[in-house]
Amino acid sequence: MTGFNTDALVHQISHTQNQKPKGDPLLVIEDVAKVYPTPEGNHTVLSGVNLTVHEGEFICLIGHSGCGKSTLLNMVAGFSRPTYGNVLLKGQRITEPGPDRMMVFQNYALLPWLSAFENIYLAVDAVYTDRPHSKKKEMVSELLEMVGLTESADKKPSQLSGGMKQRVAIARALAIRPEILILDEPFGALDAITKEELQEELLKIWTEYRVTVLMITHDIDEALFLADRVVMMTNGPAAHIGEVLDIPFQRPRNRARLIENPQYYELRNYALDFLYRRFAHTEVD
Ligand SMILES: Nc1ncnc2c1ncn2[C@@H]1O[C@H](COP(=O)(O)OP(=O)(O)OP(=O)(O)O)[C@@H](O)[C@H]1O
């Protein structure tokens, strides 16, 4: 993008960064680097990544394909460990996956031979081992209702649309009552209308559950609609956090009102400028 004047917005961003954070620090990513050994030598994907996430925050992570967004969130999930630095949850180093962090992927990852109800029941059953069967069934029914799938409880994933499958995946992740919900481009495969519906439902769920959300997206409008802060990553190799945008819009957010707000376009242009001019992707994928 050319000719975009960022001065006014930079002032506004530094101003909004002075706003008080929402809750206590929950997750601290401290000078993290991730290096993969490859046949050609060491490949440094991430280097010097620092971020503190507060309880109840909604964080969206954007950056070009291959910069290391999933690598970073996989370390928060505990699927892999940093080569250098620390990822701390309430001051404790994350070394493995745990029920306090649940991940939802773009491709749903549901068990195809189980119904929507059974997919969620499996998660509830694994965590609430001491609860009676009737109580666990009640919990599953409540989750299905929360994601608007009561009528489809007995359907198998093959009988569900993409949006419905993602609703089941989100309900299953929340069944475990995680402190952090990690979403890796959850709506990337959905059509625009379904995507907007699910974004709104996700915000309702986030408000109701007060769960902390870390979400990867390639969609700047999605990030601006959902997030408290948008974390923008530089390109790899050795990618790091380039800038963090504080999103000042009041909640509950109304999409129609948001897009009438000139500040929305300032932030949108700022993020586009970051991605497509300052950190334009030059690699051919
Ligand atoms: N196990 C691994 N061994 C070697 N390199 C890896 C491994 N896993 C990921 N990478 C490399 O790390 C880099 C970052 O990958 P990652 O999937 O984290 O990026 P991303 O930003 O999430 O991309 P996308 O938006 O396309 O999902 C890529 O160059 C990828 O090839």
Describe this structure in words.
With 285 residues, the protein is an alpha/beta fold. It has a domain at 7-100 and 178-278: Rossmann fold, CATH 3.40.50.300. Helix content is 37%, strand content 24%. The chain has helices at 7-16, 69-77, 116-127, 133-146, 162-175, 192-209, 220-226, 255-258, 262-278; strands at 25-38, 41-54, 58-62, 84-89, 92-93, 101-105, 180-184, 212-216, 229-233, 241-246. The chain has a six-stranded mixed β-sheet, sandwiched between helices. Helix 3 crosses helix 4, helix 3 runs parallel beside helix 5 and helix 4 (133-146) packs across helix 5. It is globular. Residues 1-8 and 10-20 have low confidence and may be disordered. Residues 36, 38, 43, 45, 63, 65-71, 236 line the site of adenosine-5'-triphosphate.
Short description:
With 285 residues, the chain is an alpha/beta fold. It contains 9 helices and 10 strands. The strands form 2 sheets. The protein has a 6-stranded mixed β-sheet with strand order 6-7-8-3-9-10, with helices on both faces.
